[in-house]
Design goal:
mainly beta; Lipocalin; nine-stranded antiparallel β-sheet; two-stranded antiparallel ribbon; 2 helices; 11% helix; globular
Length: 131
């Protein structure tokens, strides 16, 4: 399992089903507008099974989650909700259950591909490696 596969910086490139998904998970409309086609830069620091996953939003806001594979960690959603989750590694993908959606992240073709699913709505976000 390519252990350092995730480390790097990635810039938002495109997404699918954004509006349908954020409405489904109950994101307030001001946050929906902020996030639409937002050039989020995702920075991943990986040391073995320890990760720090930071999202830099335009305008200087950042959210950061630190976790270890297979250990419960305190996390924060894109809407700012705090919760506990255990991130697992399955077939080279990071897998986590957020309060109202299931999330996977993988490196595919040098890109960071994140998929969130909630009640049948699948949101896909692709980011290209910039560092």
């Amino acid at each position: 399992q390519g252990n350092m596969a995730f480390a790097g910086k990635y810039e938002f490139e495109g997404d699918e089903n954004y509006d349908e998904f954020v409405k489904k998970i109950g994101l307030p409309s001001d946050k929906i507008e902020l996030g639409r086609n937002c050039k989020i830069v995702t920075e991943v620091v990986q040391n073995g099974n320890d990760f720090t996953w930071t999202q830099h939003f335009p305008g200087g806001r950042t959210t950061s989650n630190t976790f270890t594979i297979d250990k419960e960690a305190n996390m924060e959603t894109m809407g700012g909700k705090k919760f506990k989750a255990t991130v697992k590694m399955e077939d080279g993908k990071l897998v986590a259950d957020f309060p109202n959606y299931h999330h996977t992240a993988e490196i595919s073709g040098g890109k960071l591909v994140e998929i969130s699913a909630s009640s049948g709505v699948v949101y896909k976000r692709t980011s290209k490696r910039i560092a």
